Amino acid sequence: MIRLGVNIDHVATLRNARGDAYPDPVDAAKLAIQWGADGITAHLREDRRHIRDADMPRLKALTAPLNFEMAATAEMVRIACLLRPHACCLVPEKRAEVTTEGGLDVAGHKEILAPKIARLRDAGIRVSLFIDPDTKQIETAAELGAPVVELHTGAYAHGKGGELERLHHAAGTVADCGLELHAGHGLTYDNVPPIAKLPGLAELNIGHFLISEAVFSGLGPAVRKMKYLINCP
């Protein structure tokens, strides 16, 4: 069974739009868990544009594992080591971007990332690296001791030619390196089935589409349908 991690960032985006206390992303996380989510993902950005510091301990206290998405900064490493979530996924982050625009350049920032990954692992946190489906990036992730890589599926989701084949090749490299394979970004009901067929895939992390779909069908049914689609024969 492929696990489904539900990213609840954009429930917080809606909350913050008017500065009120609702909708509460923690309530959304609880509902997603009730309807089959295997974990909750939340990205505490440096500018705090959606998830806030006070949200994180409340999410950590839930029954499902918390995947803390974060930039590889000293501040975020410090927060993560205090919080000790189940996992941390290191992602690239730019203030001007609307959403994460690509994978982390692990190979190009190896010396910067190595001590941060080591500190997170020493705190008992499972480290994942959000990377493009590139052999060099995957091999460097293994060298750095990160047990998990999450392949960026954004180019595939936007219809770039050859991306599904590239993802399949990357999945094979992930297996050869002895890493656990996760994937995510831009996935919907329509485009997720081929990604769910990636060999060795253990987990998908999906957020914006599920929160958008919740406007029409409710978050619970949206989570349930996605869970079915990624695991149906």
UniProtKB/TrEMBL annotation:
Gene3D superfamilies: Aldolase class I. It catalyses: 3-amino-2-oxopropyl phosphate + 1-deoxy-D-xylulose 5-phosphate = pyridoxine 5'-phosphate + phosphate + 2 H2O + H(+). Pathway: Cofactor biosynthesis; pyridoxine 5'-phosphate biosynthesis; pyridoxine 5'-phosphate from D-erythrose 4-phosphate: step 5/5. Coiled coil: none annotated. 3-amino-2-oxopropyl phosphate binds at residues 7, 18, 186, 207-208. 1-deoxy-D-xylulose 5-phosphate binds at residues 9-10, 45, 50, 99. Keywords: Cytoplasm, Pyridoxine biosynthesis, Transferase. It comes from the Bacteria. The record marks 150 as: Transition state stabilizer. It is found in: Cytoplasm. It is an enzyme of class 2 (transferase). InterPro entries: Aldolase_TIM (IPR013785), PyrdxlP_synth_PdxJ (IPR004569), Pyridoxine-5'_phos_synth (IPR036130). Pfam families: PdxJ. Its EC number is 2.6.99.2. The active site is at residues 43, 69, 185. Catalyzes the complicated ring closure reaction between the two acyclic compounds 1-deoxy-D-xylulose-5-phosphate (DXP) and 3-amino-2-oxopropyl phosphate (1-amino-acetone-3-phosphate or AAP) to form pyridoxine 5'-phosphate (PNP) and inorganic phosphate. Homooctamer; tetramer of dimers. Belongs to the PNP synthase family. This is Pyridoxine 5'-phosphate synthase. It comes from Gluconobacter japonicus. The gene is pdxJ.
